[in-house]
Structure formats: C-alpha cells, structure tokens
Amino acid sequence: MPVSCTVVVPTIGRPSLDVLLDALAAMPGPRPDGLVVVDDRPAGPPLTVERPGLPPVRVVRTGGGGPARARNLGWRTARTEWIAFLDDDVVPDPDWYQRLAADLAGLPADVAGSQGRVRVPLPEDRRPTDWERGTAGLATSAWITADLAYRRAALAAVGGFDERFPRAFREDSDLALRVMDTGARLVRGDRWITHPVRPVDRWVSVRVQAGNADDVLMRRLHGPGWRDRAEAALGRRPQHLAVTAAGLAALGLAAARRPRPALAAALAWAAGTAEFAWARIAPGPRERAEVSTMALTSAAIPPLATWHWLRGVVTHRRVTPWRGLPDLVLFDRDGTLVRDFPYNGDPELVKPVPGAREAVDALRARGVRVGVVSNQSGVARGIITREQVDACMARLDELLGPFDTVQVCPHGPDDGCSCRKPAPGMVKAACAELDVDPARTVVVGDIGADVEAAAAAGASGILVPTPVTRRQEVAAAPRRAATLSAAVGDVLAGRW
C-alpha cells in the first residue's frame, strides 16, 4: 500500500467483528501497515483476531472507556501518516484496500480526512421498521467514523476524539468540526462499506434518547449553528418538549382539582403522542409487534428526550474546548522518577519513587509516549563516566521502561550548551526524534530548570516539588502537583 496507513477498529466484542476481520483478511492487494483492534470491553478473555491474510495486528484494551477513548487509544498506538477508522459492525467491499489507497494518494496537504461511502441494506420483501429506517440514515450522514480516515497529525493537533461524549453519538461530528476549524478540509472518497442493521430489542429507541444530552454539549462547544455545519437535523425535540409540557400540565391541573383545563391538557398530550406514534407506524411494516412497540415507545420518548436534554443543560453548564492528552510526556530522572543520589553512577542506587511505575504505565495504557530528559553534569565534572550514566539509564529502563526517547546532557553549567536544562535542547530533540509537536508535550520535573526548559521549547511543564526545590521555583511554576502520581493524574484528566 503506497500510502502509510493503519486501520483502527474499536470493538465491544460483537460477533460482527469476526465478519469484518474475515472480510479484511480475504481482500486482494497490498495491505495497510497495520491493524489495531481496540478491545473496549470492561473485562473478558483476550479477543481472537489473528487469521491469515490480515496485516500485522495489535490488540490493545481500554477497560471500557467508551468509543471516543477507544478510537483515541487506537490512533495513538499507530505511527503511520493516516489512520483509517472502521466500526466493528461494517463489512468493507472486496476492493476496499485498493480504493482506500486511491482515496488517500496524492491528497493535498490541507485535506485532513477522507470519508468512505456507506450502504445500508433494507428488507426487500417488506417496508422497513422504525429502527431500520433510522440506521439507513447512516448512508447520508456526514463525517461518521464507520469508515473515515484522518491524518494522524490532524488528530494530534486537536487532541483526538472528545471523551466527554460517552457513547457512539456526536463524537465523530464534534471531531470533524474541530478539525475543520483548523482550516483543514474533509472530503469523500470512492470506497464502500456495507452497514447491516443490527438486531435490537424493542426498547432501543428509548435508550438512544440519552443522546439529547450530547446535543447540548455540541451546542456549548460549537454554538447554535452546529447542526448546519455537521449536517445534523434537529429532529422532533421541540414537539417532544410540547407533548411533555402538556402531560405535566394535565397532571398538575388534575392535582389542583381543575378538571376541565386538566382534560384539555390531557387531550393535547394524547393528540401529540398519537401523531408521533402514527408518524413512526405509517411508513413501517405495520405488523403487530412493530405497532405495539411504536405505541409504547412513542409515549415514553417525549418525556425521556426532554429529561435527557435538561440533564445535558445542567451537566454541560460550563465546558471548555477539548484538549485531549499530550502526545508525549518527558520526565526528569533524579528526584522525579527515581530517588536523588547526587552524581549517581551506580545502577544499584536507581530506586523509583513511590508510584512511578504505575504512573508511567498509566500514560502508556492511554497511548501517550514517554521519555526521559536528564542533566548529568557529573560527566563534565569528572565525577562519573558516560558509561556509568548509560548503565544507570539501562537500569531505569529495566525498572520503568521501555521509554520512547532518552535524552542526556553530559555538560556542565558553564559549558554553554543548548541541551542542559533550563535550555530547551533536550526537549526539542525528544520531540524531533518522535515527530511530536512541542505544544503537545509535557515535561514533569522537580526543579525550576525542568519547567523552564519546557517553556523554552514551547511545551507545558508540571513541577513536583521535593525538599530540594526552592520556594521561588515552586511559586513560579505554572502547574504544580504534590506527587508524581498526582502530576500524571492531572495529565490524564486534561489539566496540562
């Protein structure tokens, strides 16, 4: 495949995953660079994904973080120029690999994403049900990640998917709007997938009303015109609000012993509910099970839609733009990751601080790369050798690694180098080695030189004070944390 691309498939272990993997394995032509399957189940045995014909496969787990977090872990795990997202319930056409390569080849630099085309097969022997008609809307939806390829750099620039969207709803539209806000374009390709209608129980239309809260978040983030930009119809929420108000008025007036106004409000509620039910029943098969389901759920949906919308109004009173996780976290070594033994050249004295392993692993588990930037002026002073420094770094890697980059400055404070912190050289070198924007990088250290080096490189700094940290350094630090674990917790919470 001439274009550097990784396919990312989030899954909750549905049987349809096997259908997708079989389709990918059977395709002719050159393979993408890799396939990342993100297991988003809270628990369970390892997924069986290996089969002949697939590109190199890697399985990673979120522990049940939801679709936005799963996709974020997938693209952060990959290292290719393009990330092609597929849902686990779609079936790509046999020529999907070739068409994907053709869709991505030669795209101008201002194009950040390419959406595939979706077909939703509906029954030929009867009219579709309400659920089937809703699923068919995917064929004309804009920027859905059932099949959408993004440049990895574009995802990194905006922090990926906003994990405040907890379900597979609106998180893809939000990402598309943020990417386009950077001045980039999204285009449609010529590849095709089939999106079968999944079997569901009769109450699915009730459960999906939770998405009304996500619509509130979209408005808070993108303003009142977000629907036009995302090509998302308003739907029936105003009618649901009116029907709910009529029902509440009927109950309130009846409690107040005002029978005539209560009857009028009840009739208004009944008329609105009946109109809604018929609008759903009329285009469908009108079979007994479908009619009864529509009648029951049409009474439940208006108050539930209104409730979830109000819940969203309360929950999302104040929101800030999504920043996501950094692409890279660089740690000072002595006093931050390990106990500080001045000018240490003995690997046996490399002792991690409490919580260091868990903190670094927590970053890796979310797909954040980690590295070390360490001043070692003992080499210049003749106290230790570079070989001893390397031996101690090797021991650190055994205890807390593997690290994606290790940068060491062997110079003294009077050597005038550009790498010794507070100079930005090591931070910039680490970013250049991993092709990471310094603005998407965090430096964690225990003295002022660490956060000053971060600022000089255009990165963010977090100070974790120790007894040797000067008061002035603590006061001047833009961000502080009591412990290394707390610093990493802030990073994972988006506070960096």
TrEMBL record:
One Pfam family it belongs to: Hydrolase_like
Q: Which protein are we looking at?
A: D,D-heptose 1,7-bisphosphate phosphatase
One of this protein's GO BP terms?
carbohydrate metabolic process
According to its record, what are the GO cellular component terms? cytoplasm
Native organism: Geodermatophilus obscurus
* Major site of localization recorded for this protein: cytoplasm
NCBIfam families noted in UniProt: HAD-SF-IA-v1, HAD-SF-IIIA, Histidinol-ppas
Keywords assigned: Carbohydrate metabolism, Cytoplasm, Hydrolase, Metal-binding
Q: Does the keyword Nucleus apply?
A: no
Cytoplasm among keywords: yes
Q: Which GO terms describe its molecular function?
A: metal ion binding; phosphatase activity
Q: Which Gene3D superfamilies match?
A: HAD superfamily/HAD-like, Spore Coat Polysaccharide Biosynthesis Protein SpsA, Chain A
**Family membership noted in the UniProt record:** Belongs to the GmhB family.
Q: Where in the cell is it found?
A: Cytoplasm
Quote the InterPro entries the UniProt record gives: Glyco_trans_2-like, HAD-like_sf, HAD-SF_hydro_IA, HAD-SF_hydro_IIA, HAD-SF_hydro_IIIA, HAD_sf, Heptose_bisP_phosphatase, Histidinol-phos
Q: Which residues form the Glycosyltransferase 2-like domain?
A: 6-120
